[in-house]
Structures are given as structure tokens and as C-alpha cells.
């Protein structure tokens, strides 16, 4: 069991520290509330778990051998994160009767799977904790389950924090400042992708 504690600590820190997924959970919680944001939270967590399982199962080693694939992932991921940051920053206050729906499970899953920071975390976990399992399949199950569990807890916390924040925003100006800040934080999460 002693070998698992470092993995649990790593997963807890990696999932609770601010990043693009936490910003998405906060923004959705603030705008749509906790319950309506749960499909997004589940998709983000499931995406991270699938990535961890893939990294533990051997996909990570293949990705490390293909520098052009890494560069393409960074470019696509960075572009998508910047586009989402712009959308959040310009979204304004929610309107009564607004037809907009929160992002769902599939968008959360796709968002995480193109996130270069999430790949770095899961590849690091696969390399660091490969000795905890006797086979790649065992490591895939261990990492996938660990990251899904911790991501669900952490992102639920951030979503609830966003909901609490959203309840305190009353004016258009407050929403504009908050959305601008969340958009800037999401855009800023691109920096470590290129300059670790």
C-alpha cells in the first residue's frame, strides 16, 4: 500500500490545482448551476481517466516517440483553449429564460482529450508509477480509476465554487469582469503548454 500513497497524492494535486478544466467547471457552475453542470464535470473527469488509462496502457510511449504528433496536439489544443477563453470572456450575464445549455458529457470528454496539459499529467503518471502494476492493462486500470475518482471530486468542488460565485454576481459589470477574468485564466493555461 505504501507505493500507492504517492500516486494518490499526485492525482489529488494534479486534479485540484487550477487549470483549463477547473476554469471550465467554475464558469459552468457560475452560469448554469451545479446540477446542470454535472454532465460537463463527468465528461472532464472521464476524459482524464481515459487518457490516464491510455497512457498506462502504452499509448503514452507511442506519443513520446512521435514529436510531430506532440506538436500537432499542442497546436490544436492551444487553439481550442484560446477559442473557449474568448467565448467565456464575451459571454455576458445569463438571461432569464435563456435557451443556452451548459456543455455536456461529450464536450467535456473531447475538451480533456485535446488538452496538452492533461496529456503531460497522465504521461508523467504512467512513467512515474509504472512499477505499481504487473502489466500495462493493470496500470491502465489503476491510473484510469484513480484519475477519474479524484477528478470527479476536484471538479465538483470547483463547480460548486463557481455556483457560489455566480450567486453573488448581480450586475452586467460584475459578470463582465468575472467572465473576462475566467477567460484570461483559461487563455493563460496555454502558456505552460509551450513553456513548461
Structure description:
There is one protein chain. The chain has 196 residues and is mostly helical. The chain has one domain. Helices cover 79% and strands 0% of the residues. Helix 2 crosses helix 8. It is globular and about 55 Å long. It starts with a helix and ends with a helix. The mean pLDDT is 84.
Could you tell me the number of beta strands?
Answer: 0
Whole-number mean pLDDT: 84
Question: Biggest sheet, in brief?
Answer: none
Estimate the global geometry from the Cα principal axes.
globular
For the record, the count of structural domains works out to: 1
Give the proportion of residues in helices.
over 70%
Radius of gyration: 17 Å
Unreliable runs: none
Percentage of residues in strands: under 5%
**Count of individual helical segments:** 10
Order of helices and strands: HHHHHHHHHH
CA distance, first residue to last residue: 32 Å
Helix/strand-derived category reads mainly alpha
What key attributes describe this structure?
mainly alpha; 196 residues
Give the SSE map:
Blueprint (H helix, E strand, L loop, with lengths): L3 H13 L3 H13 L1 H24 L1 H6 L2 H23 L15 H9 L2 H13 L7 H33 L3 H17 L2 H4 L2
Helix pairs in contact: 1-8, 2-3, 2-8, 2-9, 3-6, 3-7, 3-8, 5-9
